[in-house]
Design goal:
Layout lengths: L9 E4 L12 E8 L2 E6 L8 H4 L14 E2 L3 E11 L10 E5 L2 E4 L5 H4 L5 E11 L3 H7 L3 E4 L14 H7 L19
Parallel strand pairs: 4-8
Antiparallel strand pairs: 1-2, 1-9, 2-3, 3-8, 5-7, 5-8, 6-7
Length: 186
C-alpha cells in the first residue's frame, strides 16, 4: 500500500504485536508520506486529568474526558484531535487534516473554538514512523489497514474499539475480533 493511501485510515494491530502501547491498538493515521508517518492511538486512555494539564479544555472533551496516550513519541507534548462539522472555513486555531478531522491549537482559548466542534480528544504523545518503516510493518503483518468511521476517534468506549473495528470488517478479517488476548489459555 502506498504511503499516501493510509492517511485518514485506521491501523489495527494484529496479534503479532504482543506488548506495549501498540498491543491491540487502533491508530488513526494523520499523515503518511515520503517523510514517514504520524498517527494517534485512539484506544489508550490514561489516568491523567485534562484540567491539570490544559485548564479549560476538560469540559469540552468527548467522554471519557481524560487524557489518552497517542503513542510513544513526545509524551510530554499534547495534541488536540477534533471533529469539525461542515465545510471550511474552520474555526480559529483549527487545522483540518482530512474530511472533518482536524488538530486544534491547544493554546487557543477553548471558549473561542469549542462551540464549533463536534468532538474533542486530548492526546499525550503520538505514534511516529520513519520513512518506509510503516510500509514495512504493514508488509510483515503487524497492522491491518481499514477504513475508519467518524465516531471512532471519539468513542465513549475506547477499551472496546479494537474489537468494534474488527467486527465491522468482512470475513475473514472480522474473525480476528474474537482472537483471545492470550492464545496459550485457549
Amino acid at each position: 500500500m502506498s504511503a499516501s493511501h493510509t492517511t485518514g485510515k485506521l491501523l489495527v494491530a494484529t496479534p503479532q504485536i504482543e506488548e506495549g502501547v501498540f498491543r491491540r491498538s487502533v491508530v488513526l493515521v494523520l499523515h503518511h508520506g515520503d517523510d514517514g508517518a504520524q498517527g494517534l492511538v485512539l484506544n489508550r486512555p490514561i489516568e491523567a486529568g485534562i484540567e491539570a494539564v490544559l485548564p479549560g479544555w476538560e469540559e469540552h472533551a468527548s467522554r471519557p474526558a481524560t487524557m489518552f496516550q497517542g503513542g510513544p513519541v513526545q509524551l510530554d507534548s499534547a495534541l488536540g484531535l477534533v471533529a469539525v462539522p461542515g465545510d471550511p472555513p474552520d474555526p480559529t486555531g483549527v487545522r483540518r487534516l482530512f474530511g472533518g478531522v482536524a488538530l486544534v491549537d491547544l493554546d487557543t482559548p477553548p471558549v473561542l473554538v469549542a462551540p464549533e466542534l463536534s468532538g474533542l480528544r486530548i492526546f499525550a504523545g503520538y505514534a511516529g514512523w520513519s520513512p518506509g518503516q510503516l510500509e514495512e510493518e504493514i508488509a510483515t503483518g503487524s497492522w491491518f489497514v481499514v477504513e475508519g468511521e467518524s465516531h471512532d476517534a471519539f468513542t465513549d468506549h475506547p477499551h472496546d474499539l479494537w474489537q468494534q473495528v474488527l467486527r465491522r470488517q468482512r470475513d475473514p478479517l472480522r474473525w480476528m475480533a474474537w482472537f483471545p488476548p492470550d492464545p496459550s489459555l485457549n
